[in-house]
Write a structure and sequence with these properties.
Order of helices and strands: HEHEHEHEHEEE
Shape: globular
Strand order of the largest sheet: 3-2-1-4-5-7-6
Oligomer: single chain
Strand content: 25-35%
Structural class: alpha/beta
Radius of gyration: 15 Å
Number of strands: 7
Distance between the termini: 31 Å
Largest sheet: 7 strands, mixed
């Protein structure tokens, strides 16, 4: 895994083998960040990374200079890895151990960008999306991005981007 751009451009991050993950591929990550680079000036934004796993997406946002990033994952080893790596790289990331739906139900903060990358066999994509919009967790002119495979169906008005087996549903406000 590597950071594509920003302060830590090209930095390789070695992920422990014991983490139960499927990180976003570099090709797909580069594609979605090209889209986001054209829509946002990152320096003033705050980001929520749900199902953060390795922290791949959180590290990328932070390297690109977002104001702050909150990374949420249920796996304690993942959260500890994100905390350690953010500290080592001096990145402004807050890592939280929580079930993502529970976190969203209790969340009182708004974000410019919310990125959700649940496991591909996850069945609650629609619940995540509906909860985020019901609670108005995305700021005006912000977006929600849900990464999924081709078997996932999400209702709503969104832009779909496909990169091999990786699909991004982008919901913009």
């Amino acid at each position: 895994m590597r950071i594509i751009s920003g302060e830590h451009k090209g930095k390789k991050i070695h992920v422990p083998d014991n983490l139960p993950l499927r990180p976003t591929t570099d090709k797909a990550k580069e594609a979605i960040f090209n889209i986001l680079d054209n829509r946002f000036y990152f320096k003033e934004k705050n980001v929520l990374d749900l199902f953060s796993g390795t922290g791949n997406i959180a590290f990328e946002f932070s390297s690109r200079g977002v104001k702050n990033t909150t990374a949420v994952d249920y796996n304690n080893d993942c959260v500890n890895f994100i905390k350690k790596t953010s500290l080592d790289l001096n990145l402004n990331i807050t890592a939280i151990k929580s079930d993502c739906i529970k976190y969203l139900k209790n969340c009182k903060e708004q974000f410019n960008i919310i990125f959700a990358d649940p496991p591909y066999r996850y069945k609650n994509h629609q619940i995540i999306k509906d909860l985020i919009f019901k609670k108005k967790l995305v700021k005006k002119n912000g977006c929600l991005i849900i990464e999924h495979d081709n078997s996932t169906s999400i209702d709503g008005n969104f832009e779909l981007r496909k990169y091999g087996t990786v699909h991004f549903s982008i919901f913009s406000l």
